[in-house]
Amino acid sequence: MNENSWYELFIGALDKKFPKKTKLTKALTNLLNLEREAVYRRLRREVYFSAQEIVKIALTWGISLDEISQINSEQFSFQMKHMNYLEPSEKEIFFLRQVIQGLYALQNTTDTEFMNICNKLPRQLLAGYWYLNQFSLFKSRYQYGTDKEVVTFAQAVISEEKRLITEEYNRAIKCVPQSNFIFDTLIFDFLVNDIRYFHSVRLITDEEKELIKKDLYGILDYLLVVANHGCYPETQQKVNLYISDLNIDTNFSYTFSQEANICFVHVFEKLEIYTFNSEMVENFKSWMQMKKRTSIQISEVDERSRVEFFHKQRQIIDSL
After folding, report:
1. Structural domain for 280, as ranges
2. What is the pTM of this model?
C-alpha cells in the first residue's frame, strides 16, 4: 500500500467518526489545537497530518491503524484506561471533560443509546450521590491502592475540582436520548455487605455509615421515580431498567450512535478496558441486548415485579 492510499483510508476513517464536515473540523481544531484553516488544509490533502497528530487522533478517537493498513490479524484491539478519580492528574481531568462534552454533543442524536449491565451500581448513577460516590472511590483505593498505611473513609477526600466535574458528569449522562440498565438481582446486597464490612473494621464511623445509608435511600427513591416514568425526571430522556435473573460477573457498557460507538468492560473498580472497533462494538451490542431475555423489565411495565424489587431493596438498606 502506498502512502497516498494509506492517507486516504485515514481520512475516510475520520469521515466515519464525524460524517458532518463541520463537526469533524471543530473536533480536530480542539484536539490538535490548530487554526481552522490549518485543519481545512489537512482535510483537503494540501498538507498531511504529522505522525504525532495521527497518533494523537488514533488514540483519542479509537481508530485502529492496523485496520486502516488493512492488516487482518483476526484480533480485536482493546485499550485499558487507568483513572485516579480521587486525585486526577491534569491529563485525566482533560479526558473527563472530553467525555462530558461528548455526552452533551450526543443529546440531539436520537439514535444514541447507552447500555450498562452491572453487578454494582454504575458510576453514571453514583455520580449524583456524594457519600455513595466517595464510598466507591474509598473502596477502590483500599483494595487496589499502593498506600502502605490503611486509609479510612474520611481520608478518601475528593477534591473540589473533581466534585464539580462529577456533578457535571451526572447532568451530562442524563442527556443521552436512551439509556438501559440491567441490574444483578443482588446489587444492593453486595453494596450493603461492603459497607457493613468497612464499618465493622472501624474504617467507617457510625456517623459516616448513616450518611451513606441516607444516600442509599436517596438513590433507591430516585430509581423508583425513573422506573415509574421510564425516563430521567430532569431531562425526560428515556430510561429502561431491568433486573437480571442470572448473576452478572462484572460491569459492561456500550455507547452507540451513528457518530460514535464504544464498548467498555469495567474491571478492578477503577480500570476500564475499551474498544472502538466497529465489529467488536456490534458484537457487544448483540450480546448485551440478548441479556434482556433473561431479565425482567421493571420500568413502566410489570408493576408487581417493580414493587417487589424496590420493597426488597428497602429492607436490605434497613438492615444496615
Report:
1. 79-318
2. 0.74
- Distances, alpha carbon 70 to alpha carbons 10, 25, 163, 193, in Å: 11, 26, 44, 50
CA–CA dist 188, 185 (Å, integer): 8
pLDDT in tens, 246-265: 888 877 887 777 666 655 66
**CA 156 to the chain's CA centroid:** 22
Please check whether residue 73 lies inside any domain of the structure.
no
In a domain, 74, yes or no: no
Is 267 in the same domain as 158?
yes
Same structural domain, 95 and 52: no
